[in-house]
Structures are given as structure tokens and as C-alpha cells.
Design brief:
With about 325 residues, the chain is α/β, with parallel strands linked by helices. Helices cover about 50% and strands about 10% of the residues.
Length: about 325
């Protein structure tokens, strides 16, 4: 029996309001990726993760727990669970990924730091004040909670004098660049994805030494990047400059096929079915695939199993330019 959707959405909204994230994780875990990188705190330009990559192993664990609860007698008590969650972070007990799982996703912001430094970009970080953007809550229609949370994020930017934010995932990018200006008065922060920034500077083309890569990969476009933010050419330019042969699947660019997210926390069976369809399309184009969104990576790689390999675009770029 599926869990009550209203209660699940309510828990996510309560978490955002009370704990500044739909799925709160310890600050030590969220900032683990910064260790040893010598990043300054704050500054006019900051690298902002929005905790998206760090959250993925916890979301995965939560989806498994939700699925198991829906198949058991506990599924009838989500209303009680929401009441308890207002006082105790219930999700902390439902998702406990291993250190190895967390490290897999921490690699992405670390890769981005090295790439930006290779390109000569000066930037800082916000560490424990690098807050979740509110993307999932916005997708689920929790407008009031999102607006309140956006003000908290904006207050952090003003606190540190941030004028430019460099993002690493499509969901954080579109929230900070396209959604916040609609709901916040006086919001004037410039927002660019690291992929856009590297492409603008001709990274990998104009004078950057590269360890050329061999092979061919199929590019899976993020729905959010391609459809909402127009980020289609930049990832391809950066990947092509590494020497890789790029393939496009059926449905690519602005017509890309969804990976199944972000509804996996509410409708896991539907998300899996959609991901399996997309994997079949990608597999026809090449044996290896590249993603640029944490949700796309986890949904598609799980659906593919051992039938094909998925890597985040930052891995290919760092291997070529900043290894």
C-alpha cells in the first residue's frame, strides 16, 4: 500500500521550515567535501552546492525506507510520523548511507574545485551555511515554505557580501537563478553553473593542457538544464574538447527524456519505470553515459545495473584537465 502522499509532502515541508532542508543531514557530513581544499569562507564569488550531491545517498536510503514502509503495516501511520517529525528528525533514522556512498557524491564538488582553480577562477565557499535551495519543495508546490527558505538563503548571501554564485547542479541553478528572483524582492545575485563558466572561458580549448580521453559516451541532458536554463551546448563543448566522441540518444537537448526524478520519494515505482525507459534509449547510443545532475546519475545508474556505466561530467573533465 503506498504511503499517504500528503503526509510525506508534509514531512518534507516541515523539515524545510524547521531544519532548512527537506532531508536534514549533519553539517559535518554536508561539508566533508571541503576538507583539505583550503577554501576561504565567503567572498564576492562562492561555489554553492545547495547540498544536492551530498543529499543523494540519503534520499536513496529514504526511498528504500518509504518503499518498505508502504509494503508493511507501518504505512498506515504516516500521519503520526509527521507529528513526531515536528519534534524529532525522523528521517535521520530512516537513511544511514555508508561512508563509501557519501564519498562517491562528495567527489563531484571536489572535482569542481580543481576545475575552477585550473581555469583561474577565484572563489570561496559557505561551508555549513551552504543551504539546500528548496528545489524539491518547490516542485511539490510548497510555495510558502520555499519563499520563507529563500529569504534565509538570501540572508546568508548578504551576510558574506556574495555577488556571484557558482552552482554545480541544475536544480540549485534554476532555483537560485530563475525562481528566487520571482519570489524575493531585491534579489540581485548573479548565478552561473560551473559548466557555463568553464565554457565561457574556453576551458579545454584556449590554452589549457589536457590529457586526452579515448572512447565514446552518450550524453544525458538534465531536464532542468536543457528545458529551463538552456544549458545544452556547454557540456558538449567541454566534453568534446577532451577527445571523447559524443553520441546523442533518442530524445536529447531540449527534448530530453526524464530520468524519473524528482518523484522517486513519492512514487518510486513510476520513477524506476521511467528510468528504465531512458536507460534503454541511452544504451542504444553508447555503452557509457555521462550525466550532469545527481538525481539523473542515481536514478539511471540504479536502473542500468551492470548493463552500462554512468559517470558525472565532472569526473571526465577532471580526468582530462585537472588530474
Amino acid at each position: 500500500m503506498p504511503l499517504d502522499t500528503g503526509d510525506v509532502i508534509g514531512i518534507l515541508g516541515d523539515n524545510l521550515r524547521l531544519r532548512k532542508s527537506v532531508l536534514p543531514i549533519p553539517a559535518k557530513v554536508a561539508t566533508k567535501w571541503t576538507e583539505g581544499l583550503g577554501l576561504q569562507r565567503g567572498g564576492e564569488t562562492v561555489l554553492y552546492t545547495g547540498m544536492m550531491y551530498q543529499l543523494i545517498p540519503y534520499i536513496e536510503g529514504l526511498v528504500k525506507a518509504v518503499t518498505n514502509m508502504g509494503d508493511s503495516w507501518m504505512g498506515k501511520y504516516t500521519g503520526l510520523g509527521r507529528k513526531v517529525n515536528q519534534y524529532i528528525n525522523v528521517s535521520a533514522f530512516m537513511a544511514r548511507p555508508s561512508a563509501e556512498e557519501r564519498a562517491l557524491y562528495d567527489k563531484v564538488p571536489i572535482n569542481v574545485v580543481h576545475l575552477l582553480r585550473k581555469a583561474g577562477v577565484q572563489f570561496g565557499a559557505l561551508f555549513e551555511e551552504d543551504l539546500y535551495s528548496g528545489a524539491l519543495a518547490y516542485d511539490l508546490g510548497l510555495d510558502e515554505a520555499v519563499e520563507d527558505h529563500a529569504r534565509k538563503v538570501h540572508a546568508v548571501f548578504k551576510k558574506y557580501g556574495v555577488k556571484t554564485v557558482i552552482t554545480i547542479d541544475p536544480h540549485t541553478t534554476t532555483m537560485l537563478r530563475s525562481t528566487y528572483p520571482k519570489i524575493l524582492k531585491g534579489y540581485d545575485v548573479e548565478v552561473k553553473s560551473y559548466l557555463e563558466l568553464l565554457a565561457e572561458q574556453g576551458f579545454g580549448i584556449n590554452g589549457h593542457d589536457a590529457h586526452k580521453l579515448d572512447g565514446e559516451v552518450v550524453v544525458h541532458d538534465s531536464c532542468v538544464f536543457a528545458r529551463y536554463e538552456g544549458v545544452v551546448d556547454e557540456p558538449r563543448e567541454l566534453l568534446a574538447a577532451t577527445g571523447l566522441t559524443l553520441r546523442d540518444p533518442e530524445y536529447s537537448g531540449r527534448q530530453t527524456w526524464c530520468c524519473g526524478g524528482p518523484v522517486e520519494s513519492l512514487y518510486p515505482a513510476k520513477a524506476i519505470a521511467n528510468a528504465e525507459k531512458r536507460v534503454a534509449q541511452l544504451r542504444e547510443a553508447a555503452p557509457d553515459a555521462v550525466t550532469m545532475c545527481p538525481m539523473c546519475f542515481v536514478n539511471l545508474s540504479n536502473a542500468a545495473g551492470t548493463t552500462m556505466r554512468f559517470k558525472d561530467i565532472s569526473e571526465y573533465l577532471r580526468e582530462a584537465y585537472a588530474s
